[in-house]
Amino acid sequence: MNAVLAELLTAIALTMLATLTGWFAAGERGATVLLMGALAFFFLRQLWLVLRLIHWAGCPLGTPTPSASGAWGAVFEALHRRARLASAEREQATQELARFRRAAEALPDGVMILDGHRAIEWMNLQAEACFGLKASVDTGSRITHLLREPEFLGYLDSPDHRGVPLEFQTQRNPGRSLQIQAAPFAAGRTLLLVRDVTQLQKLATMRRDFVANVSHELKTPLTVTLGFLETALEALNDTPPQEVALYLQTAAEQAQRMQQLIDDLLTLSSLETDSPPPLEDPVGVADLLADICREVEALSGGRHRISLENHGPPGLLGSARELRSAFANLAGNAVRYSPQGGEILLGWSEESGGGARFSVSDSGIGIAREHLPRLTERFYRVDRGRSREAGGTGLGLAIVKHVLERHQAVLQIESEPGKGSRFSVVFPPHRIQS
Ligand code: ADP
Fold this sequence. Notes:
Number of strands: 13
Largest sheet: 5 strands, antiparallel
CATH topology of the largest domain: Heat Shock Protein 90
CATH superfamily of the largest domain: Histidine kinase-like ATPase, C-terminal domain
Distance between the termini: 94 Å
Bound molecules: adenosine-5'-diphosphate
Number of helices: 12
Strand content: 15-25%
């Protein structure tokens, strides 16, 4: 305000000075000429400064304001300050946007922003991976042109999709199940959240199958037990005691089967939930093998030729209880799946590179190649009837697999139908105690 006043007063003073000078020098005419000259000078100066301002307004952002004195100097200074402030605010907004994008990139879920026409404005890497899209190519394209699955299109169109997720599969990313959730926000835009739920769905299916399998496995022996107990009760008065004892004996065998199944389930569950992995307790291998050998001989009841070859290191580091259970399962299977007169060899040897190998070879029924990859699945059996006959629960190799994983050991299976099998457990060097 002061600068404007000063400029005005200076202009009036200079105009009066010019008029008076003209008056004294050349009378009335001189005064008029100098007055007109002074007014023209002030007018042209204002015009020139306005033109500089217009020119500056057309320059790129950040160009310094023109310099001038007086009122115009104050105007330019004020504009300069505003321009600096705007530029700082812009810089801050850019940084915040970059921070938001980095945060959105770090999200475990996919995020996509659609404009009012369903065109992709932005998406993070997870969204690219889930939908099988490329941000560099597909940004700007309508999502409805890229993903054409009817349930997806229907979901986007439905007015009440807010808060209710949709699960679907897209041809752009075959074999994956996606869960999406749309949330409309400002100016007709939509925020699309996407998550790959393939693994979760697999787990849910596995859980359902597992419950169905357990129920089925328990139902059969339970039905048999109940049947024999009822028959025994009915026959109590008019049947010879030996016959009743036979019924009770069969019922007891079935109850034992159920008990074995429940024991195996509890072992599996404790292996799956017991974290951290087993302690590195020293386990004497010679004693462990001798125990397993005795158990196998008892199970065989003299029907097989059983031998033991121990050329390996004396100790293992791990859980004695878990290792015993895994070794006993493998050795027990060799007995149960080898006919009378079969040969079973338990072996413990060093591996090149510092590891060691426990192996169980048998001359039993063998296993066809196509079954080998699935043997460690829970309840997977090559021959269900034979497994039941042999008193199997279908959980033995699943237990073995878990124990070995917890000891960083691997299971190798070689087998030929009709000739026999060799199950080997290879331990890494850090599990060996020399
Ligand atoms: P099961 O209790 O039925 O024996 P496992 O998990 O121990 O369950 O084994 C899974 C299946 O693998 C068995 O049902 C059997 O078909 C096959 N199997 C395991 N060990 C042997 C073996 N030594 N010889 C032949 N088949 C075997």
